[in-house]
Amino acid sequence: MKKGRESTPHIGIFGRRNQGKSSLINALAGQEVAIVSETPGTTTDPVRKSMEIPGIGPVVLVDTAGTDDQGELGNKRVGRSLAVIRTIDLALLVISRGEIGAEEHSLIKAFLEQDVPFLVVNNKADLDRQEGSSVVLSETRNDIPLIHCSALTGEGIPVLVAHIRQAMPESAWKAASLLGDLIRYGDLVLLITPIDIEAPEGRMILPQVQAIRDILDNDAVAVVVKERELDMLMERLSPKPALAITDSQVFLKASASVPADIPLTSFSIMLARFKGDFDNYLKGTPRIDTLKDSDRVLILESCSHHVSCDDIGRMKIPRWMSNFTGKKLEFDVVAGLSEIHRDIRDYALVVQCGGCVITRRQVINRLKPAVDAGVPVTNYGMAIAWMHGIYHRAVAPFMGDKRGSTDYL
């Protein structure tokens, strides 16, 4: 499943077959990006298209199959459409003739369960004009706006765009700062970045790039070094860094080389605080100590990549965790936003990566089943820091008013 970059809002288009969902996508995008046909069920898999919405900027529109599809194959299509809900920031429920039935109520229930804001769009207004500007939904206990438009003629599309701007959560499109509350004008921030087999050829990994950009946006100074040159640099570096950020794989080396009076964390923990379920990570990480023989651990990667012989999620974390606990553990790895086939309650611990290529809502919704079921969750960097004995130092820069609390220890 493809994802947008971490700050790009995702808008899902849902509804029964032949309601004009694909036509609406084309009308919003201003070009033919989705196949349109009078034959019901033309859209079989979620289709994504990037576009610009004035006042918001880049968004990803996700066209889905009709939720009234039938048969064994149709049920699979419906399942894929419903799975999209946990990856989006806003849903458009497309109806025609003002009709809201069982299919629509089922979708609304799913939106509410995932805490996804939604709009109801009465399409094909050129063919069947409906009166009224709102619709009563028993699920929400009140009226919500009913937006009349025609994807064919363009009628009402500007009004729909205005409603999208208003309904879109600000957190989905307004970029927050990774480090803005930790650094000041002119501060020096040290980035420790190994160049190993997993580093992309000729480039840096995304969290490192994001950190550099955020440091520059905050009018601070980024100094980048490999771990092998770290000791030499620390002897010469002046002024003293206000913060040091390391790749989790070289935590021990970084902790030994960076003086204790310099705050130290990792790129993964930086992202965990920025877009993950940080409070639940803080509560869940110490549960590594309680793992028992035959416990099953779920590793969640957000990206799909070539697996190296010493992959951090598939190889190193399982090896470190088994050695640290001294237990015979079972590990499952699920990449991207693929479906988790086991019951989440089968797991004793869930370990989520930093999530650099997905949105915060996607990370939160990815972890929600585990959190709701009481399964402890942690993050790559926080788990690695715990197992290497430097957890408290690594999370300290982000504790804020939690400093001194025993709730997370």
What is the rounded distance between the termini? 36 Å
What best-fitting shape do the alpha-carbon axes yield?
globular
- The domain tally reads 3
Structural class: alpha/beta
Q: How many H/I helical runs? A: 14
CATH fold-level name of the largest domain: Rossmann fold
Number of strands: 15
CATH architecture label of the largest domain: 3-Layer(aba) Sandwich
Uncertain residue segments: 1-6, 39-43, 305-309
Order of strands, main sheet, comes to 2-3-1-4-5-7-6
Strand content: 15-25%
**Average pLDDT for all residues:** 84
Order of helices and strands: EHEEHEHEEEHHEHEHEHEHHEHEEHEHH
What summary fits the major beta sheet?
A: 7 strands, mixed
| CATH class category of the largest domain | Alpha Beta
- Radius of gyration computed on alpha carbons: 24 Å
Helix content: 25-40%
Summarize the structure.
The chain is α/β, with parallel strands linked by helices and 409 residues long. The protein has helices at 21-29, 71-83, 102-113, 157-167, 170-173, 206-217, 230-236, 251-257, 267-275, 278-284, 312-325, 360-372, 380-387, 391-395, and strands at 10-14, 47-53, 57-63, 90-96, 118-123, 134-137, 142-148, 188-192, 221-225, 243-246, 264-266, 296-300, 330-334, 349-352, 377-379. The longest helix is centred in the C-terminal third of the chain and has 14 residues, at 312-325.
Explained architecture:
This protein has 14 helices and 15 strands. With 409 residues, the protein is an alpha/beta fold. The chain folds into three domains: 164 residues, Rossmann fold (3-Layer(aba) Sandwich), CATH 3.40.50; 83 residues, Rossmann fold, CATH 3.40.50; 125 residues, Rossmann fold. The strands form three sheets. A seven-stranded mixed β-sheet has the order 2-3-1-4-5-7-6, sandwiched between helices. Helix 11 links the parallel strand 12 and strand 13. The radius of gyration is 24 Å and the shape is globular. The relative contact order is 0.11.
